[in-house]
């Protein structure tokens, strides 16, 4: 997790049916940095993330992680290149126990002592998951499911974490908790790409940020600057 | 159209003169083919049009054939009396088989209907009255004055007439309100319920309809062969019938007929190798579902599409369809500010998840109410409770002071609630016009008696719906897209179609779930104009939206949800200043005062 | 009382077979969200392969069974591979596709083995066991033992192995499963293979109990399916309880209504399922979002 790689994408396009959801966006996540993508629902940010993972068909002129070309890597192999993915909403394996969910996060690795250690790390990061490790994931609260989804992605020991709206459906205090976790992960040198609708969380958790509108990048800049940007405030509060 | 009429005339003429070319064996084959064609139409109606898996079609067929046989040979009825009673038996069984459809999903229906088909074979092979494995012979031929129906050639013409009438009736059903509702239910039963389609009853109607076709075929079969035995109604024949419908193209009745003719002929060609025929049609079924799910009927369109892609056929050359301007509704005076929707302490829990917690809110008639809140705060769940998709864990929902908690979606739709969906739920295989027509039809399932006794009334009703649809298309600027499939349209246009479909219900309360998501600036402006005009026409609008600019400019009152609770309620300006809202959206460390309370409830889960 | 218990025991033995068929249905449903309508005919093919190696090749019964499991498993893999383009897209079409495979399998069986069918002698030539005046065939005990062992193995596989967990994860959320590195297609192929192997086990075991013929698949499949639904579709214990319940119901219906037993069994089944559509243990919900 310590040595970082730069993740760069150029000219990513996604079509859903006849609709162009993402229209030729490009960006770079420098090693050990975190980049945010914010925008209204339907702006294409979630589609962009799924397309990066290869879960929906995409067109991309280049997509690299360090020296590796990822543009032809299948979705199921992304994790083997160090990309962890936290899906939007409560996409945990609801009928399996919390611990099974976490272990499956390490599916691409042998289940050995190192995986056990990873499990302990996740329980340390989210103590509540340790308390509930034998419960079915579907019986957890929304916040706990979100923690589980993040924990599951961490189990693969990723070098880059793609997060799709981790704040969705969470109360402010839980959003704070998630923010704390993200900052801690960042401190450990993990690169992150955070897609969010919660601007506050995004600005605090990332160093640079893109604002998406209608499938394109409308604005980008340092997160600290965007916080004070009048247009961002207008979109988010209608002031 | 001209070509089509000429084509139909040629086909009818062909069918009429066909017997002159056939020897006595082949005329028998032709007669059996017609019986299967009628069966296939029935199966196409229930499976392809209404989307319900039915493996009991052969049982309807068998019940009527055996009914005729038993009533004529054992009870001494005349053929036509026995035939009428046998049809009644088949229809009763159809309704009985349809009963599970009131409650069950597709794979259950598959097993229950297949079980029924097996049970029938089981009964007839064992029952003394049904003649056991030998079956019943000596069924009298039907009598018609002046025509000797013992003669296979004359019987052919009887069958041909019945077949043409049955096909015409089937096509009539498909293209009028009843069939349109069935197709809507097939494409999206949830959305169909939301526009007032009585889904469970309609499913049952579909089974009833297919049993009528099964019964008709059974009676003809008994009169034709004048002998019934269990193997004619075996599961193998059920699967053959299924193959006919799948290969022909289940969504098109003509396709079903083509499939029936094609497979029957194939079976005839391979009559000495029945098992190889079975391998052949089984394999074709597999290949069809994988490579050509629309069957033979869908091939012309696919080939045209292919030719167009490789450039052998010119693309559509007509004028590029354009979204027209929205024509505002006539304004009506604003109704008195009485509550039209009252939500009282509604909670909704899903296993460990408390999506809504004691939500209370009141919407007055004539209002535009905004509901905002972070993703996952329970807004759509609230809509789902109000529109009847979910039954709340606790609390009541009142519509104009009437308690409507947990009423079915179609009942609520009929009481004046219309809605749109966050992720567009248009009927994918219906044209834009048909999407509107489904919603425009306000008649109940009971009015379908007119299909039997008063077709002219159905037709006239359909014509008046079409006129209304044209007007609605015009109003929403969709005229150019009337005959397109929704999936082919730009996203913003699809959103507009969904609003038009909701307005087709002439609702008193319109629920819009994120109508601006994915729209560009101009489209958002048009949307706000449309919503204002809808309100001015006397409809109350509740709108879930993330585009705060739109909410602030459009809504008179805004309710803010967070974590399944109402955290603020007031005018847009009040709400935007409310500290807890700023906290929920942009966050502000100064406002952490309220947080501990929410922590406790989170921990209490 | 004597007759009652004897009927009951006869039902349990056949019910154990239904339970194996039901488990095959449930396994595929639980790991793929698909109802495999060709399952009954796969059972029939398994019965033929096992009996062929036992009767014609004269191998020991156990060896014939193992070969049948392997070959039939390959058929399962083939079916999955052909229908894979429909996975996670249109399960209704896929269901019809499995019906198509069922049609083909039945015809192929007629071509290879003829339409008449064959009787398989009891491979366990030991006198029946007498307990409290009840005669229990030794072969029935063998069937029960093998069913129990197969159930335990299957439960172990799903609960304790990495692959088993991954296969269930695929049914719950195939995208999230892909993201953690699971090959969804391969997982489904294994599900189909195991389902087919279970079918072969049921078919091989049922040979000495029933007459092996090409059309046996329909009835065995539908009763196994009924058992699976009765127990709660997708649940392994449900499949066992439901399968045995259908067997016992069948046995009593056979005793009281003779030829009408299938009819009665289905009427009772339909009634139960109308009252409680999710079965005894409740359907395992499968996310297809």
From TrEMBL, chain A:
SUPFAM superfamilies on file: P-loop containing nucleoside triphosphate hydrolases (SSF52540)
Matches recorded under SMART domains: AAA
Coiled-coil region(s): none
Domain ABC transporter span(s) in chain numbering: 7-239
Cross-referenced Pfam families: ABC_tran (PF00005)
Keyword tags: Amino-acid transport, ATP-binding, Nucleotide-binding, Transport
Single GO biological process annotation from the record: L-amino acid transport
GO MF terms held by the record: ATP binding; ATP hydrolysis activity; branched-chain amino acid transmembrane transporter activity
Keyword set includes Nucleotide-binding: yes
Family recorded in the similarity comment: Belongs to the ABC transporter superfamily.
This protein's name: ABC transporter ATP-binding protein
Organism: Rhizocola hellebori
TrEMBL record, chain B:
One GO MF term: branched-chain amino acid transmembrane transporter activity
Domain of life: Bacteria
Protein's name in the database: Metal-dependent hydrolase
Sequence ranges assigned to domain ABC transporter in this UniProt record: 341-588
PANTHER family registered for this protein in UniProt: CONSERVED COMPONENT OF ABC TRANSPORTER FOR NATURAL AMINO ACIDS-RELATED
Protein topology in the membrane: Multi-pass membrane protein
Classification via Pfam families: ABC_tran, BCA_ABC_TP_C, BPD_transp_2
Taxonomy of the source species: Bacteria, Bacillati, Actinomycetota, Actinomycetes, Micromonosporales
Cited CDD domains: ABC_Mj1267_LivG_branched, TM_PBP1_LivM_like
Membrane-spanning segments: 25-46, 53-71, 77-97, 109-133, 153-174, 206-229, 235-266, 278-299
UniProtKB/TrEMBL annotation, chain C:
Keyword annotations of the record: Amino-acid transport, Cell membrane, Membrane, Transmembrane, Transmembrane helix, Transport
TM segment ranges: 6-29, 36-55, 61-79, 91-116, 136-158, 190-212, 224-249, 255-275
GO cellular component terms given for this protein: plasma membrane
Signal peptide residue numbers: none
Keyword Transmembrane listed: yes
Any one of the GO BP annotations: amino acid transport
Official protein name in the record: Branched-chain amino acid ABC transporter permease
Pfam families (UniProt xref): BPD_transp_2
Database matches in PANTHER family: AMINO ACID ABC TRANSPORTER PERMEASE PROTEIN, BRANCHED-CHAIN AMINO ACID TRANSPORT SYSTEM PERMEASE PROTEIN LIVH
Similarity-based family: Belongs to the binding-protein-dependent transport system permease family. LivHM subfamily.
Coiled coil, from the record: none
Lineage: Bacteria, Bacillati, Actinomycetota, Actinomycetes, Micromonosporales
Membrane topology summary: Multi-pass membrane protein
Location(s), subcellular: Cell membrane
GO molecular function, one term: transmembrane transporter activity
Record keyword Transmembrane helix present: yes
């Amino acid at each position: 997790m310590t040595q970082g790689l730069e993740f760069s994408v150029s000219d990513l396009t996604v079509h859903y049916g006849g609709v162009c959801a993402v229209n030729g966006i490009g960006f770079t996540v420098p090693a050990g940095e975190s980049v945010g993508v914010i925008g209204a629902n339907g702006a294409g940010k979630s589609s962009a993330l799924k397309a990066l993972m290869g879960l929906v068909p995409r067109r991309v002129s280049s997509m690299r992680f360090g020296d590796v070309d990822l543009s032809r890597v299948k979705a199921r192999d992304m994790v083997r290149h160090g990309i962890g993915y936290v899906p939007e909403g409560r996409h945990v394996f609801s009928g399996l126990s919390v611990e099974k969910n976490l272990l499956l996060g390490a599916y691409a690795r042998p289940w050995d002592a190192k995986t056990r250690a990873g499990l302990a790390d996740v329980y340390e990061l989210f103590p509540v998951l340790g308390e509930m490790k034998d419960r079915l994931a579907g019986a957890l609260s929304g916040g706990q499911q979100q923690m589980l989804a993040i924990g599951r992605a961490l189990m693969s020991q990723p070098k880059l974490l793609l997060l799709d709206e981790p704040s969705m459906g969470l109360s402010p205090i839980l959003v704070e908790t998630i923010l704390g976790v993200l900052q801690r992960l960042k401190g450990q040198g993990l690169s992150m790409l955070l897609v969010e609708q919660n601007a506050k969380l995004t600005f605090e958790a990332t160093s640079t940020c893109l604002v998406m509108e209608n499938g394109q990048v409308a604005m980008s800049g340092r997160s600290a600057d965007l916080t004070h940007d009048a247009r961002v405030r207008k979109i988010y509060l209608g002031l | 159209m001209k070509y089509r009429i000429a084509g139909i005339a040629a086909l009818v003429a062909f069918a009429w003169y066909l017997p002159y070319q056939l020897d006595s064996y082949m005329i028998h084959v032709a007669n059996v083919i017609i019986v299967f064609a009628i069966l296939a139409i029935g199966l196409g109606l229930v499976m392809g049009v209404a989307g319900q898996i039915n493996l009991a079609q052969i049982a309807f067929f068998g019940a009527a054939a055996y009914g005729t046989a038993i009533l004529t040979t054992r009870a001494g009825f005349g053929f036509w009396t026995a035939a009428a009673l046998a049809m009644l038996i088949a229809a009763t069984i159809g309704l009985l088989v349809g009963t599970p459809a009131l409650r069950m999903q597709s794979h259950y229906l598959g097993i229950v209907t297949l079980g029924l088909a097996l049970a029938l074979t089981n009964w007839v092979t064992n029952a003394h009255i049904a003649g056991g494995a030998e079956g019943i012979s000596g069924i009298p031929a039907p009598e018609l004055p002046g025509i000797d129906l013992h003669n296979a050639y004359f019987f052919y013409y009887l069958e041909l007439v019945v077949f043409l009438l049955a096909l015409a009736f089937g096509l009539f059903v498909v293209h009028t309100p009843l069939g349109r509702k069935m197709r809507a239910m097939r494409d999206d039963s949830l959305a169909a319920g939301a526009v007032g389609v009585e889904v469970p009853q309609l499913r049952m109607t579909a089974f009833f309809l297919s049993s009528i076709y099964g019964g008709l075929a059974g009676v003809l079969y008994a009169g034709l062969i004048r002998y019934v035995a269990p193997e004619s109604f075996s599961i193998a024949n059920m699967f053959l019938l299924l193959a006919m419908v799948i290969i022909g193209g289940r969504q098109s009745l003509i396709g079903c007929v083509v499939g029936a003719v094609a497979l029957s002929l194939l079976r005839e060609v391979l009559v000495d190798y029945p098992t190889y025929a079975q391998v052949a049609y089984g394999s074709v079924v597999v290949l069809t579902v994988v490579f050509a799910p629309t069957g033979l009927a869908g091939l012309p369109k696919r080939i045209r599409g292919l030719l167009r892609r490789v450039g052998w056929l010119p693309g559509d050359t007509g004028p590029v369809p354009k979204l027209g301007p929205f024509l505002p509704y006539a304004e009506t005076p604003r109704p008195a500010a009485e509550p039209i929707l009252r939500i009282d302490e509604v909670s909704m829990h899903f296993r460990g998840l408390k999506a809504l917690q004691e939500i209370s809110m009141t919407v007055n008639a004539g209002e535009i109410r905004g509901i905002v809140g972070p993703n996952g705060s329970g807004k759509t769940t609230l809509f789902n409770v109000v529109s009847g998709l979910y039954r709340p864990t606790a609390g009541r929902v009142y519509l104009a002071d009437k308690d409507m908690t947990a009423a079915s979606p179609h009942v609520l739709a009929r009481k004046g609630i219309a809605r749109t969906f966050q992720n567009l739920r248009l009927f994918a295989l219906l044209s834009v016009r048909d999407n509107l027509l489904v919603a425009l039809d306000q008649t109940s399932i009971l009015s379908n008696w007119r299909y039997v006794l008063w077709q002219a009334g159905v037709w006239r009703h359909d014509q008046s719906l079409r006129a209304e649809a044209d007007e609605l298309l015009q109003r929403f600027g969709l005229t150019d897209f009337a005959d397109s499939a929704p999936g082919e349209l730009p996203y913003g246009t699809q959103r507009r179609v969904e609003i038009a479909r909701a307005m087709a219900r002439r609702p008193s309360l319109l629920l819009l779930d994120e109508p601006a998501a994915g729209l560009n600036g101009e489209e958002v402006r048009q949307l706000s104009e449309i919503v204002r005009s809808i309100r001015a026409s006397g409809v109350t609008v509740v709108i879930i939206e993330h585009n705060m600019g739109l909410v602030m400019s459009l809504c008179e009152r805004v309710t803010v949800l967070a974590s399944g609770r109402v955290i603020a309620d007031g005018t847009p300006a009040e709400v935007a200043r409310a500290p807890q809202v700023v906290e929920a959206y942009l966050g502000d460390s100064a406002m952490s005062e309220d947080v501990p309370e929410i922590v406790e409830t989170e921990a209490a889960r | 009382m004597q007759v009652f218990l004897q009927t009951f025991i006869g039902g349990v033995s056949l019910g154990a077979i239904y339970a194996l068929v039901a488990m095959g249905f449930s396994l595929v449903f639980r790991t793929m969200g698909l109802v495999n309508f060709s399952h009954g005919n796969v059972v029939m093919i398994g019965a033929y392969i096992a009996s062929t190696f036992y009767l014609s090749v004269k191998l020991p019964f156990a060896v014939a069974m193992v070969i049948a499991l392997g070959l039939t498993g390959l058929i399962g893999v083939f079916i999955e591979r052909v229908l894979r383009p429909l996975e996670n897209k249109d399960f209704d079409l896929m269901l019809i596709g499995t019906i198509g495979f069922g049609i083909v399998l039945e015809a192929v069986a007629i071509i290879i083995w003829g339409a008449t069918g064959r009787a398989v002698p009891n491979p366990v030539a030991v006198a029946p066991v007498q307990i409290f005046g009840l005669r229990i065939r030794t072969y029935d005990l063998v069937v029960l033992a093998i069913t129990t062992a197969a159930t335990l193995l299957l439960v172990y596989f799903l609960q304790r192995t990495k692959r088993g967990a991954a296969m269930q994860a695929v049914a719950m959320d195939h995208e999230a499963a892909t993201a953690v590195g699971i090959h969804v297609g391969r997982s489904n192929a294994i599900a189909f293979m195991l389902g087919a192997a279970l079918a072969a086990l049921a078919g091989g075991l049922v040979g000495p109990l029933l007459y092996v013929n090409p059309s046996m698949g329909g009835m065995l499949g539908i009763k196994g399916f009924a058992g699976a639904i009765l127990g709660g579709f997708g649940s392994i214990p449900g499949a066992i309880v439901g399968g045995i319940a259908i067997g016992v119901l069948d046995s009593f219906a056979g005793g009281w209504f003779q030829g009408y037993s299938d009819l009665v069994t289905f009427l009772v089944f339909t009634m139960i399922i109308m009252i409680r559509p999710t079965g005894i243990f409740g359907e395992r919900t499968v996310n297809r979002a």
